[in-house]
Design brief:
About 35% of the residues lie in helices and about 35% in strands. By secondary structure, it is an alpha+beta fold. It has two domains: about 50 residues; about 100 residues, Roll (PH-domain like). The chain has a four-stranded mixed beta sheet with strand order 6-5-4-7. Strands 1-2-3 form a three-stranded antiparallel beta sheet. Strand 4 and strand 5 form a beta hairpin.
Length: about 150
């Protein structure tokens, strides 16, 4: 999240400079569409960051731990979930209705009530059920399929 705030601060700074220069007599020093350029640059950076973000799920059977991480720009890793199997209350497949398109995923719910998606290669029903069945067999976490 640090990169996002750095980009946001930079964009705000450039916009502040643009606004202050536009209010003085030196407004002709800036291009007429500089504000639009900065805004497009800002949103372009956000889209680039979202496009380069990867989700990783690691199941360690030796230590009986589940770790779900987010990898940004192929370099920075942030652990979203890092818990023992006995801290998980259930897992299963979930059906999403997104703009009239049905897609499927796998989730794990922790005993404290938070639910986290487990990343899949595709959002097809067959893959989601296969991954959920393998996870249940390997980890012993009870399976409960849901529908949103």
């Amino acid at each position: 999240m640090g990169t996002f705030w750095l980009l946001a601060l930079g964009a705000i700074l450039v916009i502040a400079i643009y606004v202050s220069a536009a209010s003085t007599s030196n407004a002709s020093l800036l291009p007429r569409d500089a504000g639009t350029f900065v805004l497009l640059l800002f949103f372009g950076c956000i889209l680039f960051r979202l496009a380069t973000r990867q989700w990783i799920a690691e199941v360690d059977l030796a230590t009986r731990r589940l770790k779900i991480s987010r990898l940004s720009f192929g370099r920075w890793r942030k652990a979203i979930v890092d818990c023992r199997f006995d801290e998980c209350s259930k897992l299963g497949t979930i059906e999403y209705d997104t703009d009239g398109h049905i897609s499927y995923g796998v989730y794990v719910e922790l005993k404290r009530g938070t639910r986290h998606a487990i990343p899949l290669q595709s959002s097809k029903f067959n893959e989601a059920t296969k991954v959920a069945a393998k996870l249940m067999a390997a980890t012993g976490i009870p399976r409960l399929d849901t529908k949103l």
